[in-house]
């Protein structure tokens, strides 16, 4: 359907970049389309995307929709340009759904949509740029740093607040349907924002109303109840979030086919029957976590991944539990800091006492 590929940029596109008028004069306005976006969301032509991304020079990721490129607007604002791939199973329908959802939802823990392109040459979404990448890359060590336990908890709280907004504060409510670490983006200070709404679905929301639909999502994160009954509720997102919590605890992948217990829920819960919490924690944490805090998160993860959706907590309850867990970890860190300061004070006092000790008396010079 789409005739142009980022690697085959036409000469006319390059010529456009050399023209003196603004890149946003929109000499090639998008074709008419049933999409009715928020007027605050900018509509871009494909030619403009070439300029924004410097001819799609920097690839920063890939998802179900296509490849994501780094870009920069005229005002200096960095953006992420998600360009549709011809090989993607997600098409124009998912694209329109994502734009329509993002134009009506605004929350500090949801990625901000800046614009879109649908001009007959290509499909693209333009998002705010998240400097620290996604949570998945951090958990597998690709980001070049190890997340501390307190950082993991703060990220979990941010993502949970984003989901709570979708489930309980949007009208109509929205079910994300693809909650996983690669869809949790991180800002400069590791602030978490949920991304990728291509599979999300609005529902009536009264009394957790079920929505009959075909099963979509990522293996390992799909709610078994949804898979078996084809009935979707907000609790399906809660299940995916529970799997994410197990990943934060262990640093493991959700599915390990070669294992006797391939799913992370089975692996963790069976191991904890006979062992302490330390046995399942990510070894890269080096034991630096409050055990009670970790136990609380593990128990919460188990609740979120109950077989029956009715037994899973709401995201509001999840947030409260996570904040309690963070408070325990902060208490440990403060205690550790105070202990360190006490040691420093003790050493300083010892040094001062030794320095004040009088030496041997010397006769006064005549």
Automatic annotation (TrEMBL):
SUPFAM superfamilies: Protein kinase-like (PK-like). Transmembrane segments: none annotated. Belongs to the protein kinase superfamily. PANTHER family: OS01G0810800 PROTEIN, OS07G0107800 PROTEIN-RELATED. ATP binds at residue 82. This is Protein kinase domain-containing protein. Residues 54-326 form the Protein kinase domain. The keyword ATP-binding applies. One of its GO terms (molecular function) is ATP binding. Keywords: ATP-binding, Kinase, Nucleotide-binding, Serine/threonine-protein kinase, Transferase.
């Amino acid at each position: 359907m789409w005739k142009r590929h980022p690697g085959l940029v036409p000469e006319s596109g390059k010529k456009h970049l050399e023209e003196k008028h603004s890149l946003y004069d929109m000499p090639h306005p998008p074709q008419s389309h049933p999409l009715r976006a928020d007027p605050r969301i900018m509509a871009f032509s494909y030619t403009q995307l070439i300029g924004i991304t410097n001819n799609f020079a920097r690839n920063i990721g890939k998802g179900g929709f296509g490849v994501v490129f780094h870009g920069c607007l005229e005002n200096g604002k960095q953006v992420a340009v998600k360009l549709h791939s011809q090989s993607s199973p997600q098409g124009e329908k998912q694209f329109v759904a994502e734009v329509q959802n993002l134009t009506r939802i605004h929350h500090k823990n949801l990625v901000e949509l800046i614009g879109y392109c649908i001009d007959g040459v290509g499909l693209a979404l333009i998002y705010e740029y998240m400097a620290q990448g996604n949570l998945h890359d951090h958990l597998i060590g690709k980001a070049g740093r190890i997340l501390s336990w307190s950082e993991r908890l703060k990220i979990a709280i941010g993502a949970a607040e984003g989901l709570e907004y979708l489930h309980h504060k949007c009208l109509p409510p929205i079910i994300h349907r693809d909650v996983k670490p690669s869809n949790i983006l991180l800002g400069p200070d590791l602030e978490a924002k949920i991304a990728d709404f291509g599979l999300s679905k609005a529902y009536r929301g009264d009394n957790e109303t079920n929505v009959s639909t075909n099963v979509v999502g990522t293996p390992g994160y799909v709610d078994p109840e949804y898979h078996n009954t084809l009935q979707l509720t907000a609790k399906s997102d809660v299940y995916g979030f529970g799997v994410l919590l197990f990943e934060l605890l262990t640093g493991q992948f959700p599915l390990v086919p070669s294992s006797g217990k391939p799913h992370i829920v089975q692996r963790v819960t069976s191991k904890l029957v006979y062992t302490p919490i330390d046995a399942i924690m990510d070894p890269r944490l080096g034991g630096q976590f409050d055990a009670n805090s970790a136990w609380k998160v593990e128990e919460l993860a188990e609740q979120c991944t109950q077989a029956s959706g009715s037994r899973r907590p709401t995201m509001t309850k999840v947030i409260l539990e996570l904040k309690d867990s963070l408070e325990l970890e902060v208490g440990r860190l403060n205690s550790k800091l105070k202990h360190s300061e006490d040691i420093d004070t003790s050493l300083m006092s010892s040094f001062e006492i030794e320095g004040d000790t009088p030496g041997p008396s010397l006769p006064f010079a005549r």
